[in-house]
Predict the structure of Type I restriction enzyme S subunit.
Amino acid sequence: MPSWQRRRVKTILTEIDRRTTTGTEPLLSLRARAGLVDHLSAGGKPIDPSALVGYKIVRPGELVMNRMRAATGVFGLAEREGLVSPDYALFQLEPDVIPAYILELLRTPAMADQMRLRSRGMGTGESGFLRLYTDAFGAMPLMLPPVEEQQAIVRYLAYANNRINRAANSKRRLNRLLGEQRKTIINRIVLAGTDPGVELMNSGSRFVGSIPAHWDLMRFSQLVRPVQRAGFAHEALLSVYLGKGVIPYNEGGKRVHAPSVDLSAYQLVEPGDLVMNNQQAWRGSVGVSSIRGIVSPAYLVAKLSSQLDSTYARHLFASRPMVDQYVVASKGVGDIQRTLYWPYMRNVLVPVPPMSEQRKIVTRLEQAVTSTDHSVARVSREIALLEEFRTRLTSDVVTGRIDVREIAATLPPVDVVDVSPAVEEIDEADDDESAVEELVDA
């Protein structure tokens, strides 16, 4: 790389600090994957302009850095003028820097390691209170290629990410289909049992439909007894996670909300207890716990009747016919949080097979979904490998370990601000399983 220059960040990025006096400019949000997005379009709530006075104004082509999460690659390039948090750092780029190139360089693992070392505070960069100050950021060394080579790198990465996206999004679609297939299998067996020739009866519920004639149809209040047990702050923290049921908080719950500092009011959950997220049950955030721990005092925790096998209940209470009834029993405004009310829930209808049949259903369910679960796990591993390949390829290209100038010269030009992957959006292009192989061969 004889033509690459050793520079410091401060020689290519100049911090700027312009503030709004009206708060009327569009508010932008900085996301880890998507970069800078419109706050309202991303689902944010409207904020009165008076509360935004003093926010920083960013203009097209400028770089935005989240000081608290810089080490995890939370940077964005502005495509429009708008407002960002006053705690963010804004930078103008020198003319010899291609915006999309520097963004990719700053997101590489090597740069992330530097930022983590130069940050001040406590934490890892993903959690805690690390902060990267401008002087420390500006002192970081980097190797900068000529503008022409930056353009070649940007062109190649745009092409490469498109190919990787096509392969990864194809696998994501497959996993969603497998997930829907799994739900369909569970719903059918939970409500119809294992005997295809069994006599059916109309349950009288438009949600439950027909069930085997020898099953009981009981009210929720006959099978579930709410309990409140506080004062167990030393127990492991749990969360109810959509699609996963009751899991340890550090396995997913922390992505949804932060726990209270004082856990004394949190409720004890015993193995076999039903746990429902009061505000998300209508979406399916329910589970029968297999572990002991504590959950938010806002959750519904209940003991199950001895008429229910706990594993059967776990599948039953998360099934579509039950979740549809939770929707009716929940009240609220909008589609985000709707609170579950016990006076409505107590009359929810629950199909109850004989205990021996519940256990047969559980065995059949485990046999039926095992193959699907294995397929989902395999496809998920393949997606993870694609993302690892993307990270490694990007790092090698932007640091000059791989020279892509000749390859890039054969590719069509691109007009992009950010060449990073848009994994939150599904590329509807035809599936192309050979996409990654082509990149490797190139």
Q: What stands out?
A: DSSP finds eleven helices and 24 strands in the chain. The first strand starts at residue 5 and ends at 8. Residues 424-442 have pLDDT under 50 and may be disordered. Residues 152 and 409 are 7 Å apart (CA to CA).
